[in-house]
Give the backbone structure.
Amino acid sequence: MNLGISATEFLSQVREGNVSVEEFVAETIDRIQKVEGKIHAYLTIDDKNALEKAKMIDKKIRNKEKVGSCLGMPISIKDNICTAGLKTTCASKMLENFIAPYDATVVSKLKTEDAIILGKVNLDEFAMGSTTEFSYFGPTKNPWNIEYVPGGSSGGSGVSVSALESLISLGSDTGGSVRSPSSFCSVVGLKPTYGLVSRYGLVSYANSIEQIGPVARTVEDVAFILNIISGLDAHDNTTLDKGNADYTKDLDAGVSGKKIGMIIQMTGDGIDKEVASATNKAISKFEDLGAECSSISLDAVEHSVAAYYTIASAEASSNLSRYDNLRYGFDFGTEGYEFKAYASKVRSNFGPEVTRRMLLGAFVLSTGYYGKYYLKAQKVRAMIKSQLDEAFKKVDLLIAPTMPILPFKIGEKIDDPLTLYLLDINTITANLSGIPAISVPFDISSSGLPIGIQLLANTLQENKLLQAAYALQQTTHLPKVPL
Ligand code: GLN
């Protein structure tokens, strides 16, 4: 059986009776068992329940009963999104055995549509990182070359979809975490407009900038899932009313007459040569399709990394203060400890990156430094938004490489946090401003590693964004994952 089909193809094959859900799910589980030892995308595999659910859905289909629109599509979920009955560890020792008592809104919406949750996938601890190396449970590896990082923090999401271990995955994107692994693993990843998708049940890292987003093999699949997971949610008062938006509508509308601006600050110094030439190639493809391309300067982008790490760390230090090992945690007795000594002992079990962020966050929020760092970062954030508002008066879409460089070797940059932070330069603008952005697989480097192109649109312009992404996707003929 071909496990490499898109979710959309899966739906039509099941509908036509060419594939049974049970067969597809069983083969996907076999595949997971075969490749997991090499790539380590999953932290929890719920194979028994998945197979049972698949049988039930087949039965419903046979009996012509009503079945949800996902028709038993196997999906993986990043392990910082709550799933009732299945562990949600955030790849941290602090939540090693935590089982959430409820489903995140996105998960319950997918379940209502008869998606099958195959399991939970790896991430950098509490989603802090760009490589999935900072997982307490060990790194996830890039299926295009298992010595290389898969991007992050939703590395398990990118890898499970790319390596045919799931049809779709949900990740979270605080500063690029859906788009980075999508780019490094040659799959499609969307960071929706802030508020379009409920964050209820997403374990908070930096809640004023993060969104849950789909990872899939095609733009059509991303649009299909976005239709399901988006919209108002009484549990999350930052959610927006999407009206009667249908993201799968007119995907083939094309880009003729559309104005696309290349962001100068995301394509200059420090960009890998092959990544730069892929970006130019993508721009000429758009021109061939009738788009008008130009260059746009957003000079506030130069300060975005500093602003992002100030704001994200500040929110992280506040959000993660709840982990005292009393309400959630691992097996560690309290006897003989004063509260403070106990808290500091157990909190030393956070990994190095999380610890760094909490310290930095506490510092930038402290009296005397608040104005100097946190407030200043908020000003940069406002500047970025107003420069984008101006840009979108001139162009419909923006374009830049998703990641400035190619995937690199596991361990190569792990001791160099600043270099790792700088890798987020092209992705964090969308988070700081709340606009939607997508990474589309576009090319493969001479060394056989994927290159993704990022498109950005104005707030709630997902339709326009997906149409352009679809147009770009149609110009590519990429090889399948070699694993
Ligand atoms: N690399 C960024 C960070 O470490 C983004 C992570 C994310 O989007 N969750 O904060």
